[in-house]
């Protein structure tokens, strides 16, 4: 019993990170109909920002807001520099652009910093555990779960209770109609990128606390997991992104803990096979994606 | 409640020039790729006027409304609003200048609630006015008030049409464009929509109404424009047009000529010159 609860919390912690990234991917997909394969770069850039800040002697009290602000600014900047030019282009052009951004950012860090990774100190409490009701949990898992819950609550509040959040949902459903009501394309797209940046920034905080490492490809795996989670949930469905993220985290932890150590390396492969099987039965994910018009 | 639009006779000053009309469409041509939808359309609309835009399917009525609201960029000609050339402006800016469209097929945002649809329609208003205006319109359209928290996708056709109209009225536009507002509605519900159009007209709002039900539309209009294959073929006071049986016979009646011009969505047009368009 104890073990199951521990694994559940562990899975939710990991899944929470995926959910935050997937929600960002879903928000951007909603307003642009583009799967943003450059979303992981927000984590990469934030990783180098924390490395730079850590070099100046900054503590995690500085690093945390630094990471979040970097992710938000990077997200908005990438939209301004790259994606705004392909808004009305074909899906394929947008996909290629997102890959382009991914490779340019990666190459920039290889060229201007180093191909090898840079390390910075992880917070002291990272390995500490908390005992609740006789069950020991890793503090960071509880932190992620709390932060995910808060971020999701904030996102829901923005989307449900502010007129700009409603405009993002309106644009995600039918962009042309949203424009006919006076919604500014620039504004909703920028807001969606800022919100996605915020969520990626929060995910990045925990990811970097765990790894304490900046590398040119730091964001690749989180991005892939985030996109996968968004696909599992149903692209464009924001609740789906959250469900997909949590489910992915839980399944991964379950596999890691149940499989013999010798096949540990196959966890990702098994996850992809499971997702493929899911798509046979639900081609558009757990919650079917809605239709939409592009800006 | 009122719809805040006093009938005005004012002229609009742009630079040294003075313009009398609220809206002027000047020699507008619109194409969809190689397919021409509008051939040099010119039309002026005075403040407080109601114009019925009628014609068979594929005549270019929706294309004309889309050009006025900015969803379609004309390849030639221009659109003036209060004298100012707005041809290049996107719809979201035209909305801010005082236009609104009740789109064809209503295009309700089905995943948003009724109230959220209205609030998005008020995005151009100052923040403090949005909720007040939504409450006003939910009082006027009481069914929307009763269903304010319901997902708009669950509304019936008539309710959805009321929502589409209320949503367009949120920003108190000077000009309201309505594209087939009674399409697919039961006769009783369609009659209510026409009553609403009359009410808006009496309040002094400027209206351009595209309607399949030409006879009824003429009753609610000051003037009428008849479009056929992308051209205005008749224009004049609504009563005069209504009295012209020849027009109804040749353009709007059930003669086969009027049935299959262009595709049923009213957007496509053959590339032929309009004078030779005997498609059947």
Structure description:
The complex is a heterodimer of chains A (295) and B (280). Chain A has one domain (15-116, 149-281). Chain A is 70% helix and 4% strand. Chain A is built from eleven helices and four strands, in the order H-H-H-H-E-E-E-H-H-H-H-E-H-H-H. In chain A, strands 1-4 form a two-stranded antiparallel ribbon. A two-stranded antiparallel sheet of chain A has the order 2-3. In chain A, helix 2 crosses helix 8 and helix 9 crosses helix 10 (238-258). By secondary structure, chain B is of the alpha/beta class. In chain B, 33% of the residues lie in helices and 24% in strands. In chain B, strand 3 (23-32) and strand 4 (35-45) form a beta hairpin. Chain B is globular. The model of chain B is unreliable at 4-8 and 254-280 (pLDDT under 50).
What features would you highlight for this structure?
heterodimer; A: 295 residues; mainly alpha; two-stranded antiparallel sheet; two-stranded antiparallel ribbon; disordered C terminus; B: 280 residues; alpha/beta; Rossmann fold; six-stranded mixed beta sheet; 10 helices; 24% strand
Number of strands of chain B: 12
How far the N terminus sits from the C terminus of chain A, by CA atoms, comes to 51 Å
Proportion of beta-strand residues of chain A: under 5%
Helix content of chain B: 25-40%
Total of DSSP H or I helical runs spanning 4+ residues of chain B: 10
What is the CATH class of chain B? Alpha Beta
Helix content estimate of chain A: over 70%
The helix-and-strand class of chain A reads: mainly alpha
Rounded to the nearest angstrom, the radius of gyration of chain B is 18 Å
Alpha-carbon distance between the two ends of chain B: 49 Å
The secondary-structure element order of chain B is: EEEEEHEEHEHHHHEHEHEEHH
User: What percentage of the residues of chain B does DSSP assign to strands (E)?
Assistant: 15-25%
- What is the N-to-C succession of helices and strands of chain A? HHHHEEEHHHHEHHH
Shape of chain B: globular
């Amino acid at each position: 019993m104890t073990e199951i609860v521990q694994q559940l919390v562990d899975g939710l912690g990991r899944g929470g990170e995926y959910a935050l990234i997937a929600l960002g991917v879903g928000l951007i997909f909603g307003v642009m109909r583009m799967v943003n394969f450059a979303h992981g770069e927000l984590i990469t850039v934030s990783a180098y920002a924390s490395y730079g800040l850590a070099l100046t002697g900054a503590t995690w009290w500085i690093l945390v807001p630094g990471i979040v602000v970097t992710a938000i600014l990077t997200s908005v900047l990438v939209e301004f520099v790259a994606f705004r030019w392909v808004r009305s282009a074909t899906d394929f052009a947008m996909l290629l652009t997102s890959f382009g951004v991914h490779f340019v950012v990666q190459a920039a860090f290889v060229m201007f910093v180093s191909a090898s990774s840079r390390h910075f100190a992880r917070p002291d409490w990272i390995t500490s555990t908390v005992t609740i009701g006789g069950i020991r949990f890793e503090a960071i898992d509880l932190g992620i779960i709390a932060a995910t819950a808060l971020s999701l609550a904030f996102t829901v509040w923005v989307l449900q209770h502010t007129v700009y959040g409603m405009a993002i949902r309106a644009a995600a459903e039918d962009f042309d109609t949203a424009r006919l009501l006076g919604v500014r394309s620039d504004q909703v797209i920028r807001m969606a990128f800022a919100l996605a940046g915020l969520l990626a920034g929060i995910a990045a905080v925990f990811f970097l606390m765990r790894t304490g490492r900046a590398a040119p490809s730091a964001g690749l795996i989180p991005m892939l997991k985030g996109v996968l989670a968004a696909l599992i949930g149903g692209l464009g469905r924001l609740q789906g992104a959250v469900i997909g993220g949590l489910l992915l985290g839980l399944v991964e932890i379950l596999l890691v803990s149940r499989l013999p150590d010798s096949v540990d390396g196959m966890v990702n492969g098994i996850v992809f096979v499971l997702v493929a099987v899911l798509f046979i039965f639900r081609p558009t994910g757990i919650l079917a994606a809605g239709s939409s018009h592009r800006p | 409640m009122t719809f805040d639009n006093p009938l005005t006779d004012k002229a609009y000053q742009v630079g040294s020039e003075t313009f009398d009309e609220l809206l002027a469409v000047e020699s507008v041509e619109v194409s969809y790729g190689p397919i021409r939808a509008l051939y040099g359309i010119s039309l002026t609309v005075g403040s407080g006027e109601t114009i019925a835009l009628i014609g068979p399917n594929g005549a270019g009525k929706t294309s004309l409304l889309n050009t006025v609201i900015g969803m379609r960029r004309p390849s030639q000609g221009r659109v003036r609003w209060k004298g100012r050339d707005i041809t290049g402006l996107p719809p979201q800016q035209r909305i801010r200048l005082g236009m609104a469209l009740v789109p064809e097929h209503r295009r309700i945002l089905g995943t948003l609630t009724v109230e959220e649809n209205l609030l998005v329609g008020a995005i151009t208003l100052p923040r403090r006015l949005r909720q007040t205006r939504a409450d006003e319109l939910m009082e006027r359209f009481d069914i929307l008030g009763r269903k304010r928290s319901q997902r708009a996708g669950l509304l019936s056709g008539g309710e959805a049409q009321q929502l589409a109209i209320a949503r367009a009225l949120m920003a108190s536009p000077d000009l309201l464009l309505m594209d087939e507002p009674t399409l697919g509605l039961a006769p009783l519900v369609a009659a209510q929509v026409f009553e609403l159009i009359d009410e808006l007209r009496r309040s002094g709002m400027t209206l351009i109404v595209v309607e399949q039900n030409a006879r009824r539309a003429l009753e609610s209009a000051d003037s009428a424009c008849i479009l056929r294959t992308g051209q205005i073929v008749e224009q004049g006071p609504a009563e005069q047009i209504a009295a012209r049986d020849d027009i109804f016979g040749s353009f709007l009646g059930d003669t086969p000529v009027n049935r299959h011009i262009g595709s049923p969505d009213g957007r496509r047009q053959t590339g032929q010159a309009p004078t030779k368009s005997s498609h059947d």
